[in-house]
Design goal:
Largest sheet: 6 strands, mixed
Shape: globular
Strand order of the largest sheet: 1-2-6-3-5-4
Structural class: alpha+beta
Order of helices and strands: EEEHHEEHHHHHEHEEHHEEHHHHHE
Number of strands: 11
């Protein structure tokens, strides 16, 4: 029995195409300004990758009228941050509700025009290049996704990571490249704004029109991408690297975010590795002693993403034995299913986590924007029902149909002794 509180909202559009979502919560003194741009790494030129992530940094470098983004925000007692994924770029500001106009002023001015200069571009390129080196090249297993994505995807732009394919793409980015990318994607027609918290609908509409209404519409991203062909053969790559221990990554193509079976994959990942009593932990770590740890998770993209299993092997364990043992557990579920009680235990955990996350006004704002981007804002209130609807047969069927040899991509890290 779950007490599923509905997230109330109002939604409207400005004449320039900006989507406004309003959610009033009088139980807080705060207000959130969440701005989602319909652009991610999948929208980049294959020869000029990493631009969406680069813009996450450039957008904090100041606009034409506001040279310092953080200074007025700090004076208004606000906090801000952003994240980029393969699908979206999301900026958010949290501040006292009486100061919400500061957030709208800041966001509208940098949407209107960033302060593009060679100096600011070079500074942010340097930051991104250093991040690339630290997170992806200079730490053990850091380049896993740089190798796994192009191995799993042949044509879809999910074949490169959000950071980009290679440092050279950022190093070679010109001011004209950056301006063209900005003008293509960072406009009202391609954005969803949510004002959530202690703010009335009339105020939200009035302030949004005041600060965003005069910005030219621009073009909406059509979100058209090459269709990834079905994988029909096991793919494998081995990397010899200076890592602490051997590591194994298995990737399986799964369904898109709006598919009825999406939440079955999500629950399966927790059945396999979500708790200390999960199947992987009990059998692969505790009983057989093949791994020091092993995890299952989904990449969670809008288009067809990946179901991932990765683990660190104990010394002396062969890759073939480790992979075979993982697949034996998958085979057992495919052939015999799982007890209803095991599925319900995982459902309880995931649903509780989902409900708890929705107590945050910021999380509600982000969830509303994302659901609207997916094409049905009411999805924000349907997730619990979709999780509850997953059956034992669904779990069994996805193991049979998707977690197969033909649909498997394997990346092996072999530690150099």
């Amino acid at each position: 029995m779950y007490l599923c509180k509905v997230i109330n909202y109002n939604i409207s559009k400005l004449e320039n195409g900006l989507t406004l979502i309003h959610h009033e919560d009088k139980n807080t003194n705060l207000c959130v300004c969440n701005l989602l741009y319909n652009v991610g790494a999948r929208d980049e030129n294959p020869d000029k990758t990493g631009f969406a992530h680069l813009f996450e940094h450039l957008m904090f470098g100041g606009s034409v009228n506001i040279p310092s983004f953080d200074t007025p925000l700090q004076k208004a007692s606000g906090e801000n941050n952003a994240f980029t994924s393969n699908d979206i770029t999301n900026y958010y500001i949290t501040l006292p509700s009486q100061n919400i106009e500061t957030a709208l002023w800041l966001e509208s001015d940098r949407m209107l025009r960033l302060d593009f200069s060679e100096k600011s571009l070079n500074v942010q390129k340097g930051v991104v290049i250093e991040e690339f080196k630290q997170r992806y090249l200079n730490q053990p297993y850091g380049d896993a996704w740089l190798n796994l994505r192009p191995l799993a995807f042949e044509v879809h732009p999910y074949r490169w990571a959000t950071i980009g394919k290679e440092i050279a793409h950022i190093e070679d980015a010109t001011l004209n490249d950056v301006i063209a990318f900005f003008e293509k994607f960072y406009n009202p027609s391609n954005a969803i704004l949510c004002l959530a918290g202690n703010i009335e609908l009339s105020t939200a509409i009035q302030l949004t029109k005041k600060w965003f209404g005069d910005i030219p519409a621009g073009q909406k991203n059509p979100n058209l991408y090459p269709t990834e062909p079905n994988q029909t053969n096991r793919r494998e790559k081995t990397i010899e690297a200076n890592v602490p221990q051997n590591a194994l990554y298995l990737a399986f193509h799964m369904v898109e975010r709006t598919h009825p079976l999406y939440f079955a994959f999500d629950l399966l990942s927790d059945i396999l590795s979500g708790t200390d009593s999960s199947r992987f932990m009990n059998q692969l770590v505790k009983k057989l002693g093949l791994f020091t740890h092993v995890h299952a998770y989904i990449t969670g993209e809008i288009d067809k993403g990946l179901f991932i299993i990765d683990g660190k092997l104990k010394d002396g364990v062969e890759f073939a034995e480790a992979e075979s043992s993982i697949m034996q557990i998958i085979k057992d579920i495919a052939e015999n299913g799982i007890p209803e009680s095991e599925l319900n235990k995982v459902k309880n955990k995931v649903i509780t986590s989902n409900l708890f996350s929705k107590t945050s006004v910021l999380n509600k704002a982000m969830a509303l924007c994302y659901a609207e981007l997916l094409g049905d804002i009411e999805l924000v209130n349907k997730e619990i029902d979709k999780l509850k609807a997953v059956t034992v047969l669904d779990i069994q069927n996805i193991c049979r149909a998707y977690l197969s040899t033909e649909n498997r991509t394997v990346l092996k890290y072999k530690a150099i002794k």
